[in-house]
Amino acid sequence: MAIQWRGPVPDSNYTVGRDGNAITLIVDHWTVVMFEAAVRRFLTPGSALSAHYVIGQDGRIAQLVSEDDTAYHAGKYDVNLRSIGIEHEAGPAMAPTDALYAASARLHAEIASRHSLTLQVGTTVLPHHAIVPTECPGTLDLDRIVRQALEEDDMFTDADRAKLDRIYQHLEAYEPLTWTKRLQQWLARAFRTQFPEADLGGPDVETGQPFKG
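Given the sequence above, the corresponding structure tokens read:
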């Protein structure tokens, strides 16, 4: 996934490091303003605002703060210390797009993989308004993001699943004993075709009883 580095933000807008805290959650926001306006706000000295990522309506992703550092996005410093903030180019007059959701899902899946998070809305994935009184992130559907992220984490395509399903439905055909039994039966038929009186006595490979062909 292509991510454009647009940082670093000014020293006034983030803290280097995380004071020993592990990343335990993702906080999702909407920008209300356009993509570039959001980026400019975070790059403005003294705004005391930033986010790790900004996702555009067209699916592009910009990173302004390293995940190793603390962005100022949640409204509570202790939450900032252990979270990754993601801004989405959306607002009351700017509905989230399919491309935005797809990019956000991929980003959530990658963050979860890097930091061993189990993505779940309400625990490891929070809307901004769950932390401080705000309308953010408005109509952004976090359940959809997490659902798509979990699908992103699945390496199999629908075609792969169809092939696997056919294998599972006929799994007994892949057992070595099954193929050995079939080989014994085929050889018996072949011998009888050429040598009708051939003695095919011996144990059945499947049952151990005398082979009856």
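The two ends are 59 Å apart (CA to CA). Try to locate this feature in the token string yourself.
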